[in-house]
Amino acid sequence: MDHFIKQIEDSTGFSVIYGEDVKIKHPVTLDIHQHTVSEILSKAFKNESIVFEISGNHILLRERLDIKK
To answer: Measured between alpha carbons, how far is residue 37 from residues 3, 7, 42, 50 in Å?
Structure first.
């Protein structure tokens, strides 16, 4: 997760905010070029219990509450 977040921050200029409870269960490998930040995050979290919100230069990640564990 940390590598993916660092890649997003370095490539886009956004700051990503998330808590300990936000974890990606599967490895994420995406071509982040020629895609919007929203597209990248949607694809990365497609099968995860993570939702995101973009506000200004910040991306907030949180656990989706409607997913059963």
So the answer is: 16, 11, 8, 15
Q: Which two tokens stand for residue 48?
A: 């995860």
What is the distance between the alpha carbons of residues 54 and 19, in angstroms, rounded to a whole number?
16
| Each residue's pLDDT tens digit, 2-11 | 888 898 899 8
Q: H helices of the chain, where?
A: 2-12, 37-44
Q: How far apart are CA 20 and CA 32, in angstroms?
A: 24
**Among the listed residues 40, 65, 38, 35, the one whose alpha carbon sits nearest the alpha carbon of residue 50:** 65
What local confidence, expressed as pLDDT, does residue 51 receive?
94
CA atoms of 66 and 49, how far apart (whole Å)? 8
CA dist 17 and 31 (Å) reads 22
